[in-house]
């Protein structure tokens, strides 16, 4: 049964899906939907996702939206996926669900609010919005602090003190990677106080190599382009 | 094994949990954590949820946060819960997961942003914030429209065209019920264009009677109190 992933590698939840499938040997076709080119607003894509957002999947005739729902589905539908990604044990799974749910109104809200409004907006034709960026920064810093002191526990390398990564580790670290498009100094200012977070990002990168770096190449190209534009602006 | 629900009936996710347990005959002890009195910031509650938010549960020695994670857990841990609340069928479950995930950054974000900043803030000692209320309203209206035209489908009474409610129906309708604390006219302005949503709210109320109304009594008392205060302010 064919699996199509409608994704943009600049979108953090899209990257989480791609890495997850590659890591677990799940065969798929990548259908690029370039947000910067407005391809998510095309009539063809509206038939897949009328809400015009990536990622989305079509597995056979089954269409599914929302990255966490998709990760849960793939982990359950493909028996080759190791249990630690989305444990069948009721208590272990419930704890992972609580991180996945927490993510939306905290890390994701803060990260998108700050990165989009401080840096990325012009790349998709929107103006920068310093006030929205400031609100985003506040939520982002509080979320990084919560991960650093609460969700990461001393016993294990991954979230909830686990010794192996789950879909929550992958989703959250792909979100934090979005900070790569910021100025180096700004990124360091936000991340460097959170030592456990920095260590954990490395653990997730190592556990998902070489796919993690490969899938993030596009993001680093966007970073380079943004910084070239900024330098050109500063010297003109 | 004892089940304790740490809840405030003024909190919409708390109400969803209480209704769910009552409906399904799950025995529990309700531990009221009154947000208006700052009880979520007490050292005792910090031991249950260091993030100082309701709802939280303790089931035996197992602590769990985040209302959707808790609903999933309860539906899985208690065999008396009918399958339609959280179907074991992979595809049916995945679709419900996509609504649950969508909720956080859409309906919940819009509803909390509007209701809190336009009306409820003074009740917990915060100032009103018209700009944040306007942002919330925009997200709220877009979310109600998405439910009206996309998540509700013509074939069934509930979300996704289902003939019986799921935990997503309960969570989303409890969120929309928060609009009850607004002025009647304002609530009508927001809700009345969404005919399918209005019909669906009634379907969920009927399917969860008499617990739905019983658990919402506190919210209606808060509404009354707010309107009395407003009338007193207007006549002073």
UniProtKB/TrEMBL annotation, chains A, B:
<protein>
    <recommendedName>
        <fullName>glutathione transferase</fullName>
        <ecNumber>2.5.1.18</ecNumber>
    </recommendedName>
</protein>
<dbReference type="InterPro" id="IPR036282">
    <property type="entry name" value="Glutathione-S-Trfase_C_sf"/>
</dbReference>
<dbReference type="InterPro" id="IPR043377">
    <property type="entry name" value="GSTT1/2/3"/>
</dbReference>
<dbReference type="InterPro" id="IPR036249">
    <property type="entry name" value="Thioredoxin-like_sf"/>
</dbReference>
<keyword id="KW-0808">Transferase</keyword>
<dbReference type="InterPro" id="IPR040079">
    <property type="entry name" value="Glutathione_S-Trfase"/>
</dbReference>
<dbReference type="Pfam" id="PF13410">
    <property type="entry name" value="GST_C_2"/>
</dbReference>
<dbReference type="InterPro" id="IPR010987">
    <property type="entry name" value="Glutathione-S-Trfase_C-like"/>
</dbReference>
<feature type="domain" description="GST C-terminal">
    <location>
        <begin position="89"/>
        <end position="225"/>
    </location>
</feature>
<dbReference type="InterPro" id="IPR040075">
    <property type="entry name" value="GST_N_Theta"/>
</dbReference>
<dbReference type="Pfam" id="PF02798">
    <property type="entry name" value="GST_N"/>
</dbReference>
<dbReference type="GO" id="GO:0004364">
    <property type="term" value="F:glutathione transferase activity"/>
</dbReference>
<keyword id="KW-0216">Detoxification</keyword>
<comment type="similarity">
    <text>Belongs to the GST superfamily. Theta family.</text>
</comment>
<feature type="domain" description="GST N-terminal">
    <location>
        <begin position="1"/>
        <end position="82"/>
    </location>
</feature>
<dbReference type="GO" id="GO:0009407">
    <property type="term" value="P:toxin catabolic process"/>
</dbReference>
<dbReference type="InterPro" id="IPR004045">
    <property type="entry name" value="Glutathione_S-Trfase_N"/>
</dbReference>
């Amino acid at each position: 049964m064919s699996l199509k992933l409608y994704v943009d590698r600049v979108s953090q939840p899209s990257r989480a899906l791609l890495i997850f499938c590659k890591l677990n040997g799940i065969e798929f076709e990548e259908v690029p939907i370039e947000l910067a080119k407005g391809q998510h607003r095309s009539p063809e894509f509206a038939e897949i996702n009328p809400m015009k957002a990536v990622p989305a999947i079509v597995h056979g005739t089954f269409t599914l939206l929302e990255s966490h729902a998709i990760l849960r589905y793939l982990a359950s539908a493909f028996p080759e996926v190791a249990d630690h990604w989305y444990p069948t044990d009721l208590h272990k799974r419930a704890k992972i669900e609580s991180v996945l749910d927490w993510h939306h109104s905290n890390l994701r809200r803060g990260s998108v609010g700050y990165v989009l409004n401080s840096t990325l907006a012009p790349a998709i034709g929107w103006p920068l919005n310093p006030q929205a960026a400031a609100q985003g920064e506040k939520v982002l810093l509080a979320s990084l602090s919560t991960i650093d002191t609460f969700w990461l526990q001393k016993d294990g390398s991954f979230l909830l003190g686990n010794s192996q990564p789950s879909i929550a580790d992958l989703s959250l670290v792909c979100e934090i990677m979005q900070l790569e498009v910021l100025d180096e100094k700004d990124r360091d200012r936000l991340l460097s106080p959170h030592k456990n977070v920095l260590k954990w990002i490395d653990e997730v990168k190592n556990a998902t190599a070489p796919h993690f770096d490969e899938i993030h190449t596009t993001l680093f190209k966007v970073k380079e382009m943004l910084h070239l534009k900024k330098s050109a602006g500063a010297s003109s």
